[in-house]
Design brief:
- About 75% of the residues lie in helices and about 0% in strands.
- The protein is built from 6 helices and no strands.
- Helix 3 (about 55-75) runs antiparallel to helix 4 (about 80-90) and helix 5 packs across helix 6.
- It is flat and about 60 Å long.
- The termini are far apart.
Length: about 120
C-alpha cells in the first residue's frame, strides 16, 4: 500500500471517529435536557447540533448575517428582504426562521435583527 492510500485510510478512520463522537455528544445533550426537563434547544448552537445543520448551512447563515449587518448599517434592510434572502440561502430551513431568532433573542445576540424578524415584543 502506498503512502497516499494509507493517508486516505487514516482520514476515513478519523471521519468515522468524529461521526461517532458527534452522535455520542448529541445523545448526551438529549439525555441531559430530558433529565432537567428543559427545552432541547435554548440556544442556536444546541439547536443546530440537534437538527444536524451542515457545515454549508452554517456558512450560509454566517454569510447571511454578514450581509444583513452590512445592509443594516446603511439603514437599507427590510424584514421582507431579509426573509427573502434567508429563504434563498437556506431553503430547507425556511420554516425555522422565527425559532432561530427566538434562540438568538434568548441569548441577547443580534438584537436589531431579532427585532426586525420577530417584531418588538
Amino acid at each position: 500500500m502506498d503512502s497516499l492510500e494509507q493517508r486516505v485510510l487514516e482520514l476515513e478512520q478519523r471521519v468515522l471517529e468524529l461521526e461517532s463522537q458527534n452522535r455520542l455528544l448529541t445523545d448526551a445533550l438529549l439525555r441531559i435536557a430530558s433529565e432537567k426537563g428543559e427545552p432541547l434547544a435554548k440556544n442556536f448552537s444546541t439547536y443546530a447540533l440537534l437538527n444536524k445543520y451542515t457545515a454549508y448551512e452554517i456558512q450560509e447563515l454566517e454569510g447571511l448575517l454578514k450581509w444583513a449587518f452590512n445592509k443594516s448599517t446603511e439603514n437599507n434592510l427590510s424584514k421582507e428582504e431579509f426573509i427573502e434572502e434567508f429563504n434563498r440561502r437556506l431553503p430547507k430551513r425556511k420554516n425555522e426562521l422565527n425559532f432561530l431568532f427566538e434562540c438568538y433573542r434568548r441569548e441577547n445576540i443580534l438584537p436589531y435583527l431579532c427585532d426586525l424578524v420577530l417584531g418588538d415584543n
